[in-house]
Amino acid sequence: MKQSLVFSPTLREVPADADIKSHQLLLRAGFIRQNASGIYSFLPLGHKVLQKVANIVREEMNKAGAMEMLMPSLQAQELWEESGRWENFGPELMRLRDRHGRGFALGATHEEVVTSVIRDELKSYKKLPITLYQIQSKFRDEKRPRFGLLRGREFMMKDAYSFHASQESLDEVYDRLFQAYSNIFTRCGLNFRAVVADSGAMGGKDTHEFMVLSDIGEDTIAFSTDSSYAANIEMAPVVVDYSPSLDVLADIEKVSTPNKKTIEEVTEFLNLPVEKSIKTLLFKADNEFVLVLVRGDHDLNDIKLKNYLGANQVELADPKDVKEIMGCEIGSLGPVGVNSDIKILADKAVQAIGNGCCGANDEGYHYLNVNVNRDYTVTEFVDLRFIQEGDPSPDGKGIISFAKGIEVGHVFKLGTKYSESMNAEFLDQNGKTNPIIMGCYGIGVSRTLAAIVEQYNDEKGIVWPINLAPFDVHVLTVNTKNEEQVQLADEIEKLLIENGQDVLVDDRNERVGVKFADADLFGIPIRITVGKRAAEGIVELKTRNGEFSKEVTVAELINEIKNLKLKAFF
Fold this sequence. Notes:
- This protein is globular.
- The model has no long low-confidence stretch (mean pLDDT 94).
- It contains 14 helices and 31 strands.
- Strand 27, helix 12 and strand 28 form a beta-alpha-beta unit.
- Strands 3, 7, 8, 9, 10, 11, 12, 21 and 24 form a nine-stranded mixed beta sheet that branches. It has a five-stranded mixed beta sheet with strand order 16-14-15-17-20. Strands 28-27-29-30-31 form a five-stranded mixed beta sheet, with helices on both faces.
- The protein is α+β, with helices and mostly antiparallel strands.
- The protein starts with 20 loop residues before the first helix and ends with a helix.
């Protein structure tokens, strides 16, 4: 392919609204262009890479026994109402109406559609298990699209769904696809971890996220220093053994704390260790209010709270509800004297606080020397806080450390969440009707592309792995007015194509500095420069990562390129 024919508008300056490397470089190299906030066009080079990522996904899914299909992006409201997610999915679901007033959603995911297809066509256990997948655009109305392809409103996704007659069958396919995902991200050259995760709006249990390690990741991974244990910080259980307080109980005392609302302000004002304070939060769980207590130096994990309560949604109560229920402002909340109708949950660490400090439910006042059971009661003590670095690992091996990660894949054991609500049933060998057991498996294809760029770049541009680059070899003609250089570049292009290489030839009438700068931006792993020794049939062969550079004859090119690939320079 001649570069003069390629649409790849490069940028010399970093776009002002691009905050991370992948966003900056994909824009600068002309791989993508923004059409609206969170919505991008993939230009020819970007599209080539996207298809290479998709093909790796496709090959591994096919090997794992899944079959590809294609479902509509436009989904009927009635299907989402059957599953109960028309309201519960939240504002991220893009809703619209046709000219007849019928409701539809743009596909954020396809559990409802695929369940309806299976429900209507599959009735017997003899047809199970089956796994179906597709690769297509998804739509989510993100409140704050950012980081380019990492958080968009339209994105490319592979979503797969498995259907089973037994839990054992689901477990087997789940393990097989878990391995397929590991193969996919390994083939993409990514440094990743599979971590225990929360299923969120998808539902189900036993889920894992595949996280690409990156400092700009939006998720925090808690991992053991001495074992393979890893979990999303939202899901990592705390196994600290808290010893009961040995403090002699002191008399409770109400003290003035004028204009002191945060834990830091109150403990500093009262000259108390923060570990002696109790943070009190009022939450609304679906339609019920619950008071939650955590130690002052800990952060409440609302995912743990949501899962413990079995709620669809939990959120902090608004100031109006706090005032009406607790009789004070948010900064003065505490568990003492609370109406018995309000459930009080506390993290296990609170049970070990003796002579603690908490809000007095009176603006500008706090209690000192507060003790559980004597001064307030707790409905139940449960694990409600985020794990912290230095805590013991939940598997009993080592301690917890943190890393940032970009989620690129997620696998779920859905169970019968959708089949029960949507009446997707099968007849077993005894003629008994049962709900189909389901699994769900997603990969962000465009997000994976961005994650690759986050891990493969330098100060000059992208450095693609050989199997993902838009072209295998980039041929640069230094002087297009030199007939010997032009002729040799054409001969090299023909030779490489005959030997199965995908070649880009920079035949543009540009300064050599511009050509080298664009080549660095594009990141094609092997570069051949046709220059002043063209008359001798000698060219420069080098790799984009800078680990190899050598002058070779044209006759040596094919073997040298094969050797480079064998030595895994990429």
